[in-house]
Design brief:
FAD/NAD(P)-binding domain, 7 domains, 29% strand, binds FE2/S2 (inorganic) cluster
């Protein structure tokens, strides 16, 4: 097999990982460190450290020590220029005195300094680069099993086999390419039982997911599993795995020792050296010095000698002064003398790999007996076995250097002196120490450095390790690629009943959730988006426009207690709404935060027609059913979204057009604003709502989906003489913005309550209890929060959505929506500002085109503020 490394062909043997093949071919530098660009070589050879990250076939940060070679793959080093061996940016280490821990918090304190430094920091920061040619095939799969075992070592295999013998369906997840765990490379522990292995592989009720790892254990025993190279057409598969019971058999991983130059190329963990030797037949060096407690070193010493590696000497950890060498190991200095060698084999403390237990709510505590953090309380439906439970872990105390720079966090180049400095500055709690120094926050997520960081923190603060505690483990750990989370490229789309009618008109689509909606119509012309949108806008304001609103969620709510339920779940009052009337509906969570909005029409005494935003239908339905549960109320909720097509005809000529198609009296005296009727339009039964999102006289019509296109075409034909035009979402957004109507999720966020959004009028605090009432009662009196206001720009141009609002040079809010308003002949928008700025006529500064532009605050609509036109 051959693959490319830095553009050159490299040979590999069957079963090789990329790193093993490269090492056999003489490669020793595998990466450059994050901050100082120090050369780094293989350390753990098990996927637990950051030292072998490379770009493989366009995917950055691939751990090459566990990625099998594939014929023809392209591998490149990263974070180094021009090469891994010669990296100009390693000059950074000469200036490390300029970059003490937390240096940018201390030095870049003025916004101007930060702005000047930011582009350069962004350029050199980060690991790896996404190449445009990367593979993009990812899959999602769903599985379930009675018992899921995480870990394919001896303990995991035994647990899986016991469950299988009980007749359970078992899934065994193993992050290696073959079962056996450390039995595969610690030869002196004895051979793997072929019998057990064969029976496992043959058992019909055992499924083995090789080359896969669990990155999270979530509520309800849902495991996130990432399978690498599941088959030729996919590079990764994300499995949603539901388990009756989870057995954590993830073993323990070895961690480095701290001494001067402990990160030189050629300093390796003993488990890494043995894996290279026994799994790939590669000797990590010729002359080795072994460092570790005597109980651990004897076995390693024997294994190395058996593998033709000369063992120069064995040294206790507290006798080591430093590794000698520049870039790579040439020897070791100890208290008893210097020794020449090309390999330092470190037998470091072993850490039970129990992060998944902590993530799921279990407790991990320090045990003096184990010299490690071990699980003491397990989450429901989970157990731990083997080294993950601490069974065979007994670490002696290891020395931690004082006053000497040893690298603790290899991911972020955080040294022992950095940690001591940070603690002296007051960051003496393990959680704040982590965030200030970034130790444990890199690609290895603390695997290599957490124990040492805690040890140093404990020593410097005169606390025990148990009192110091550990940082919180959160999924995903290990990390997951964004591609795998996003899933396959195919994306289900929903089309409205008028989809092909839009297509025939010439349309630019936009995605809204699963739906495809016309952004604007091109009419097969070459005009720009701005021109087309303005055309559609004018049609609505001056004649009539027709928009497809079939994507609105639609619920048919029936039964004698329907009003009671809607009163409970929405903030307005609906039990007293008269049949034939429509009301704006706002839904909040128990904290008073806006969740969704829409309209509720009372069709008759026992029937309501509820519309929701396009993306929230399922949620709203579940929310209603949740609050209905256990009440015994007479309410039936039916999702009729797919059964109805919907369109909105709006504009001064809309009554003239619709009158040609229906006998229903459309005059305001009979069919007033916010009324609803069931009527026949062009012979098609429809529910007509007289509402006005865009600020003009108009009707929203809901009719059977199979007849929706026919009705759409009939309205366009009837309106031809009046100048009717179809309009898309972009024109609708401009029209609604001129009316200062809020779009939930665009102008609101996860902290917005109706009072902040200037929609307190939609909350009826005087009705009986409803969802969110308690906190909304407080919010009604609290004037200290931000407010959503309208603004009119005092200079040409339009700020971008999301632009900052600045007051006295300080960020004081943000723009949520902005457009050029033909009605105001200026840029207008909605923005969150401090309450003190939320006054009619106040001026604010809005960030635009790299500068600040004055804007005038208004609390009134930008167009037809009295609402005369939509009531006509
Ligand atoms: S050497 Fe590959 S992850 Fe440690």
């Amino acid at each position: 097999m051959k693959f490319q490394f830095q553009g050159k062909l490299v040979g590999a043997q069957p079963g090789d990982t990329i790193a093993a093949a490269l090492y056999r071919n003489g490669q020793r530098v595998f990466s450059r460190s994050f901050k100082y660009h120090r050369p780094r070589g293989l350390l753990c050879v098990s996927g637990n450290c950051p030292n072998c990250l490379m770009n493989v076939d366009g995917v950055p940060n691939v751990r090459t020590c566990i990625r099998p070679v594939r014929e023809g793959m392209k591998v490149k080093g990263q974070n180094a220029y021009p090469s891994l061996e010669t990296d100009f940016l390693s000059i950074a280490e000469r200036f490390d005195w300029l970059m003490p821990v937390g240096w940018y918090y201390k030095t870049l304190t003025h916004p101007a300094m930060w702005h000047a430094a930011e582009p350069m920091i962004r350029k050199v920061a980060g690991l790896g680069e996404i190449l445009p040619s990367g593979p993009t095939e990812y899959e999602h799969a769903w599985m379930h099993a009675d018992t899921v075992v995480i870990g394919g070592g001896w303990a995991g295999m035994q647990a899986a086999w016991s469950a299988a013998e009980r007749g359970e369906q078992v899934i065994l997840i193993d992050d290696q390419v073959a079962l056996g765990g450390q039995l595969r490379y610690r030869k002196r522990m004895g051979p793997i039982s072929d019998d057990v292995m064969a029976r496992m592989q043959a058992a019909k009720n055992v499924r083995i997911l090789q080359n896969s790892y669990c990155f999270g254990l979530y509520e309800g025993n849902l495991l996130g599993v990432l399978e690498r190279d599941p088959h030729a057409d996919a590079s990764e598969r994300l499995i949603h795995l539901r388990a009756g019971h989870t057995v954590v058999a993830t073993g323990a991983y070895e961690t480095p020792l701290l001494f001067l130059n402990n990160d030189l190329v050629g300093v390796m963990l003993s488990s890494g050296v043995l894996r290279l030797l026994h799994l790939y037949g590669v000797a990590a060096g010729q002359r080795a010095v072994i460092v570790g407690p005597s109980a651990e070193t004897a076995e390693v010493c024997a294994e190395l000698r058996g593998g033709d590696i000369e063992v120069v000497t064995v040294v206790e950890p507290d006798a080591v002064v430093r590794a000698i060498g520049s870039g790579k190991v040439n020897g070791i200095q100890t208290r008893t003398g210097d020794f020449s060698c090309d390999l330092i084999v470190v037998c470091g403390p072993r850490v039970p790999d129990s992060g998944v237990i902590a993530q799921a709510g279990g407790k991990i505590e320090w045990s003096d007996a184990h010299g490690a953090f071990v699980p003491t309380v397990l989450p429901p439906h989970a157990s731990a076995v083997g080294d993950a439970a601490g069974e065979a872990v007994a670490n002696p105390a290891v020395p931690l250097p004082a006053g000497k720079r040893a690298f603790v966090c290899l991911c972020s180049d955080v040294s022992s002196t950095d940690l001591c400095d940070a603690i002296a500055e007051g960051f003496d709690q393990i959680e704040t120490l982590k965030r200030y120094t970034t130790a444990t926050m890199g690609p290895c997520q603390g695997r290599m450095c957490q124990l040492s960081s805690i040890g140093i923190c404990a020593r410097e603060t005169s606390r025990s390790i148990g009192e110091t505690g550990m940082t919180t483990s959160r999924p995903p750990n290990p990390g997951v690629t964004l591609g795998a989370l996003a899933g396959p490229k195919h994306h289900p789309i929903r089309r409205t009943p008028m989809h092909y009618a839009h297509q025939n008109l010439g349309v630019v689509w936009m995605d809204m959730g699963d739906w495809q909606r016309p952004r604007y119509y091109t009419n097969h012309s070459a005009a720009s988006e701005t021109e087309r949108v303005l055309h559609e806008y004018r049609a609505v304001r001056e004649a009539a426009g027709l928009i497809d609103v079939s994507t609105l969620g639609k619920l048919d709510v029936r039964g004698a207690d329907s009003g009671k339920l809607l009163d409970l779940v929405y903030t307005h009052r609906f039990s007293e709404l008269r049949p034939g009337r429509v009301r704006y509906a706002l839904m909040c969570d128990p904290g008073g935060i806006i969740l969704d909005d829409g309209t509720i029409s009372r069709i008759n005494e026992d029937r309501y027609f509820v519309t929701t935003t396009s993306g929230n239908l399922d949620f709203v339905q579940q929310w209603l059913e949740w609050y209905l549960g256990g009440t015994n109320w007479d309410v039936h909720i039916t999702n009729v979204t797919a059964g109805y097509g919907a369109m909105n005809l709006a504009g001064p000529k809309s009554r003239d057009i619709l009158s040609k198609l229906t006998d229903c009296d459309l005059n305001s005296s009979n069919f007033s604003y916010m009324a609803c009727r069931e009527a026949s339009v062009n012979g098609i039964p429809a529910i007509l709502l007289r509402i006005g999102f865009v600020g003009e006289t108009g009707w929203e019509m809901h009719c059977p989906a199979e007849s929706a296109e026919e009705l759409w075409q009939a309205i366009l034909a009837a309106g031809y003489e009046f100048g009717v035009r179809p309009f898309g979402v972009e024109a609708q957004r401009l029209l609604r913005l001129e009316k200062r109507h809020v779009i939930v999720g665009v102008d609101t966020d996860a902290l917005t309550n109706p009072y902040d959004a200037d929609m307190g009028w939609a909350v009826k605090l005087d009705k009986n209890d409803f969802v969110g009432k308690a906190l909304l009662s407080h919010a009604a009196k609290d004037q200290s929060r931000e407010r959503l206001v309208g603004f009119v720009l005092q200079a040409p141009g339009v700020p971008e959505d999301g632009a900052a609002v600045v007051v006295n040079g300080q960020p004081a809010g943000r723009v949520t929506s902005s457009r050029y308003s033909p009605a105001q002949m200026a840029g207008v928008g909605l923005a969150w500002v401090k309450t003190s700025q939320a006054q009619e006529g106040t001026f604010i500064d809005v960030h635009m085109n790299g500068g600040l532009v004055k804007a005038k605050v208004t609390m009134r609509p930008f167009y037809d503020p009295e609402g005369v036109r939509l009531r006509q």
